[in-house]
Amino acid sequence: MELEPPAELPEPRAAAAKGAPRNDDRVDQRTCLICGDRATGLHYGIISCEGCKGFFKRSICNKRVYRCSRDKNCVMSRKQRNRCQYCRLLKCLQMGMNRKAIREDGMPGGRNKSIGPVQISEEEIERIMSGQEFEGEANMSWSNNGDSDHSSPGNGVSESNQPSPVSTPSSSRSVELNGFAALRDQYIGTPVSTHYQYLPHLFSYSAHSALVPPQARSLDPQSHSLINQLVSAEDLEPLGTPMLIEDGYKVTQAELFALLCRLADELLFRQIAWIKKLPFFCELSIKDYTCLLSSTWQELILLSSLTVYSKQIFGDLADVTSKYSPSDDELHRFSEEGMEVMERLIYLFRKFNQLKVSNEEYACMKAINFLNQDIRGLTNASQLEQLNKRYWYVCQDFTEYKYPHQPNRFPDLMMCLPEIRYIAGKMVNVPLEQLPLLFKAVLHSCKTSVSKE
């Protein structure tokens, strides 16, 4: 029986439309109490804009500690609010933004809509700003505080299938310094939660890799068979979407957006065809594979774009986007959400470019990401957990066999998956009209960084 695209499967354009702004600007003309920008509603207890709402949530969820290079009284306005994060967070607290209104899992949606603004003492504000408030939580394991989105056996992913910002690199403007290396160093050596007790090697790499010399060994026959099955399920042929452009042609925003939609459509249906070829396809119920694909298609597309199709995406598509010139108004309206996605995509591209992920590793990563037993609505989560564990160990076995002199390679690969989930979730919130500029900026930066190497 042929698998038809599920009726409830979101199309890329429909999903992206969720991030489109409302046309009715008459709903709320009030101003943000933090920076004076146009407010979008009541966020964490006070009237504020989307930018300050997101900044406050990231600061609290990520337990950020900022520094002010002036006198801790910097002016907060729409144009100047990004100049001093310390003073921006300080004003958020002084104006009554309520930390307890942030969901503990770091996801959208307040934990309690009835919670209003709060007035806290200067001493408590100082404890938050200095980081003392978070010191007792510094050594908590991954599974605590809502940060449970990891594509490992027994992972616990939040309800909307996005990792909390705690599990991802800092979104400050220094993508070179913040990232997976720092993330790995932060958590290796901390107490392992019960969900990860049966991972014998992942958390001991850094401690023992310098002491134990790599030894040549053979690949387990079962791992070899399973990997071959996964790779054979992949369509590794070049993408068919035309991405060639004549010299001198100027691409409009509408043309570039149409191309991005067509490309996303092709990538999406390649994922649907991939599911039918999976070795465990017949083991899944129709409801479960529909639910899995509906929840992970964006992540699968992003992962494939960064690996097996990267030459076309960061080559041919980059050439097309270079012919698109955004207007001053587009540049001015580029959102903080778009800026964060841009930074994280550039860093992730550099990480994948450094790792040079093989087709075998890509196939395993894709299966692990797809087999997410914590997505809501599944009928047989325990079955998916066992499948997830199977390919987790297959990937680990292959990586250790193929790259014996790179003992950190496997954890590096696995730590890319929560970042992919976070970015994929964030891209949905980027307004439609900003996508052409976002892709132009990302592809230009990535192509330039490769040419310099």
What is the share of helical residues?
40-55%
Report strand %: under 5%
Instruction: Write the CATH homologous superfamily of the largest domain.
Output: Retinoid X Receptor
Stretches where pLDDT is under 50 for at least 5 consecutive residues are 1-28, 105-114, 137-213
CATH architecture of the largest domain: Orthogonal Bundle
The helix/strand series, from N terminus to C terminus, equals HEEHHHHHHHHHHHHHHH
Q: How many distinct domains?
A: 2
Number of continuous helical runs:
16
End-to-end span in angstroms?
49 Å
Beta-strand segment tally = 2
Large-scale geometry: globular
Mean pLDDT: 76
Can you summarize the main beta sheet? Answer: 2 strands, antiparallel
Structural Rg? 23 Å
Pfam family, one: Hormone_recep
Protein name: Nuclear receptor subfamily 6 group A member 1
Keywords: DNA-binding, Metal-binding, Nucleus, Receptor, Transcription, Transcription regulation, Zinc, Zinc-finger
GO cellular component, one term: transcription regulator complex
List keywords for this structure.
453 residues, Erythroid Transcription Factor GATA-1, Chain A, mainly alpha, 2 strands, two-stranded antiparallel sheet, globular, Retinoid X Receptor, disordered N terminus
